[in-house]
Amino acid sequence: LKELYHLSSRNLKIIMRNPALNHIRLLQHVFVAVMCSIAFFQLEPDKERDMAGALFLMVVLTSLFGLFNNIQVIPTELPLFAREYRSGAYYILTWFFSKVFTEIPASAVLPLIFNTVCFFAVFEVANAVKFAYIWLICYLTVQASTAVAFFSSVLGWTPLHALAVSPVFYVPSLIFSGQFILIDNVREYMEIFQILSFLRYGHEGAIIVFFGHYGGDTYAQNGNATIATLTMDEDALWNKDLPALVGITGMYYILALILLYTRTHFRI
Predict the structure, then answer these.
(1) pTM, whole model, 2 decimals?
(2) What letter would DSSP give residue 123?
(3) Burial (CB count <10 Å: 0-12, 13-18, 19+), residue 94
(4) C-alpha closest to that of 73 among 138, 166, 172, 167
(5) Helix or strand run (H / E) with residue 8
(6) HSE-up of 67 (CA within 13 Å, CB side)?
């Protein structure tokens, strides 16, 4: 625990020493949120399709921020990590989880800013409970995309290779998110990609929270019909979507840790 504390503290100090990068990330979220707000500003109750599109963008864009903001976290520190690990300074597990824990604050605060700007600008009647649910869904989706970024980083091993590898895991999740192919229309031999699609669970969760009964009735005219049209299950939030997001996040982190351990010992 002491090693984990010291490594996490060092990681936070490194982040704080680069305020320009932090400012860019903040401006990135605010700028894109303002653009989405302008495009979907104050949607009327009969614009269910546009509302669904706005919710989908909120989930996808926050996940993309999580992916690209973390894709180079591991590759850029591998030389220092290898040198300190050879000297016996810490365990691989300790170093890895210190990187994971360090990214948690940003992955919570930045989506909160993004969703606050978008949600209250896009929807005429903004329900605070629904907003909290959607922020939670976006936060868990960001965690999943961050885990994908870590796995891609270890698999690629260098910044350029990590960037090249990441679409292999992100794009299938996007294709089978339920926005382009309805959930019930996915062919049987492609269902594995749908099961592993963290964007599918984030998208479905946001849709059923906003158009369903969570936090009270939605102001959309045909909320239940929208859920049915997208072949989604209103009872899936706690039974499937949130547990699946946590499970997929854990799966990618475990795979990244195993791969890091294997590649480190192979190289060292």
Answers:
(1) 0.90
(2) B
(3) middle
(4) 166
(5) helix 2-16
(6) 24
